Amino acid sequence: MRFPDNCSLIWIDKCTLQFNDGSLEQVFSTKGKAQFDNGVGEVVTELQGLTTGSIIDQSFALATVKPLGISKAHFHQTIVEEYYILEGEIELKLDGKPHIGHPGSKFTIHPETTHQIYNTSTETPLTIFVRCNPAWVIEDFHEVIRPKE
Question: What is the block-wise mean pLDDT of the chain (149 residues), using blocks of 10 residues?
Answer without folding.
Answer: 45 48 48 69 75 66 91 90 91 96 91 94 92 78 67
